Amino acid sequence: MGLLGALVSRVQPLAITDDRVEARSDHGYPPTLVISGTTLTSKWFEGSDYEQVIEMVVTNTNKTNSLTLADTLNITASSSSFNLVTPGTLTRLYPGQAAVVQIGVQNAAGVAVGTSCSGKITATWGTGYGSAQTATSTVSGRCGFGDYTADAASLSWHWNPDWFHEVKFGIFIHWGVYSAPAYGSTGTSEDYAEWYWMRMTQPDYRTHTYQYHLATYGQNFTYDDFISNFTATSFDAKTWVDLIAASGAQYMVPVTKHHDGFALFNFSTSISERSSVHYGPKRDFIGELLNAAKTYHPQIRPGGGFPGGPPVNPYTGAVETCTGFVDNADFIQDIQLPQQNVLAYDYETEIMWCDIAGSANNATIFASAWLNWARDQGRQVTFNSRCGIAGDFDTPEYFTHDGVVSRKWESNRGMDPFSFGYNYQTPDSGYLTGNDIVQSLADIVSKNGNFLLDIGPKNDGTIPEIMQQGLTDAGAWITAHSESIFKTRYWSVTPGENNFRYTTTKDAFYIHYLTTPPTTLIIPDLVPYLPGDTVSILGGSLTGTVIPVTWNSDTTITLSLSNDVIASDEYVWTFKLAYTSRW
Helix crossing, 285-296 with 237-246: angle to 10°? Predict the structure, then answer.
């Protein structure tokens, strides 16, 4: 959930005097602020003692005056039900523009968690140069963090934790029995290689997997015969998480079980024995991977991909006794839900990345219990929209939006042109490069999205060199430009068009240019620049170099770039507009 929604304010040009810049006088030039959308959320500030976040939209409706450091904005709350702990502020807000502000509260003594309550929000500014200006709003909702119940209405209150907004870039991993045949055809005929088990039953499907399997393995070689070829002889969990860390990613989502029903983690044999623990390599790969991340790269948030579907005979499509199948009365109750519980509680995943939407399932039962348990552990977790209920975020595949989408979303795709699992027929030239990854990341983040990029290891547990190269190339850029990507928010006016993309923080505004810039770079949008601000290049060999700025008559700005500045970076050029002005 989020507040700005489809809010795209009409931006008014600033009034400019003949002298172009008129400093604030003793009387000041205060903005006009309006508070809207004030909400008591389900999240708390990370690292706090359950300090509940109240989130609101602050809009500057003044036609000429910007909010600046000189206004010393302070946003507070008062209520008989809660106490203010952390006030809110903004450093910059242009005329006609809006931004989200958060404050933190805790229940007053004697107020039970989950109690309906209300309060008053007050914004105060301008006291440093004149009479106080104020704006107020009311807020009502749930005070504190009561129990979720097993119904969609209760679960709809759950918001993405802020950390999920902040991590931005994650690595998806599709690896399993399907990595042995590793076939998905090429070009316009290509399809996800991880669906080999299904495509081999479809003679008319575009990949011709049915014909390929018959010619290569013969009619008596079943899908489950590939289990012995899923060797993982070269798998090393530390090598994998080292690469993920080098890519700059801040979370990972290994697929714990794909739709072929073969799992990569450990659970009771009363649930199933269809896993890598009981057959094939006889190893708990998810456990090894998450433990390696916790040991060597604890900053990487753990997730778990969990597609559904009972074991299916790849030839008849019937639910039958496949390798490791245990005869349970009900797939949802006896297999799916217990396996999800194992991932949630034993493996302590923080992201439940389902792919079971549309099925009759126990999503409300699972999610309510998991969220209550995580809260008691002081952990904030999240789940996607494919668990059978609305969830916290949407997950379009091989797709990005044209503009900002207010509901949190995460674009997921493979480094392969059109496969998540390894497809041996894809040439090296078909994989995403470092440049492709960085440009995609900047584009997606500017539109309120996360980027979940998939790698498909080989059946022996090695990650193809071409994938490693793309990830490490991208990682060098991401690390050098991290402040413009991680912990940023989208700009409510526009994500940018053509080669421009924008991200924001409380203290700065970032301009991303998606290709080599010209020496004279005119920023087409009314970015929140004021005289006295500092613009510098971020990342590359000349990071921190101040860039000359021309403030144009229409209040757009032009950046003057030397050839050395242009040559100092690659992939995407990023310019940091620091709000240093007190004008």
Answer: 50
